[in-house]
């Protein structure tokens, strides 16, 4: 089967949607399908590394350079240029897929081009949680192109509500297929070495991700605790200056996938202190697959991802977060119970199972298109 996966965000920049698209490509390619990922890249060099090192049988077709823009309280590496859209349509026609799977179908760039002018049958998946007035207005404008989509899905109830709010024509059509985690990538990892009980944070240093709340909570933990604050962002400099006297905090910056995965596996606790805007939270599942206990904000997207396998805390409350971190970090029975539940939860959400669900949809639509 020839499958085209279209990603609106740079596939050479870490991100939740990119992780899902690339993981799905690998899972489908492992089943013998011919898979291409079409999306932006931030350079020819990094695009080559995605193709050679990351897709394990699938191919990456870069169609434009990405430009970071502010979206939904974060920075999204998109390529909203006419030339990118034209190259996307050309690449799709050249590949001649049996099915096109478009992620975030109305984001300007490759996804919008595939939605409006690409071949059919076409499946779409919505990831975004939360919408401002501008996004709602934009969604109503381009929503007429939803008639080009044969079936539409969302990764969570929050993502479904956002899509239904912004694109009225989709109401009643969206089913949920949650994100997946590539469980096979984790058992053979060499954990990153640690010195003492360790908490790890993975994410962009911006208000929405709640890193400052975690840092305030961490200041109340015992002297032997350690924190790895992975990532960079607009708040990096301010937060590093504010907490510069706490030598227990390590700031690795932007790391490659292997180091990120090794640190997730090496820490005792992964903390996701986000304040909102999280449609699913696949990084929670990654931590669980790595055998790390999870403490996270009590958000609907995180509840969907974690099930009963995480310690959830009211967002934005450093004292409550400090208590939860202390309980999990220093109570071995509590921590090991979360680790075991987490491994089971990650297995339930394995990317191979997600790929099977989508592949059944692809086959059904492709067959109906030939009838």
SSE topology string: EHEHEEEHEHEHEHEEHEHEHEHEHEHHH
Indicate the proportion of strand residues. Answer: 15-25%
CATH fold-level name of the largest domain: Rossmann fold
Rg of Cα set: 20 Å
Give me the number of helical elements.
14
Amino- and carboxy-terminal Cα gap? 16 Å
Question: Which regions have little confidence, pLDDT < 50, spanning 5+ residues?
Answer: none
| Biggest sheet features | 7 strands, parallel
DSSP summary, beta strand count: 15
CATH domain class name of the largest domain? Alpha Beta
Can you give the mean pLDDT? 90
Indicate the percent of residues in helices: 40-55%
CATH H-level superfamily title of the largest domain = Glycogen Phosphorylase B
Secondary structural class: alpha/beta
What's the overall geometry?
A: globular
Overall structural domain count = 2
CATH architecture of the largest domain: 3-Layer(aba) Sandwich
Q: Which sequence of strands runs across the widest sheet?
A: 3-2-1-6-7-8-9
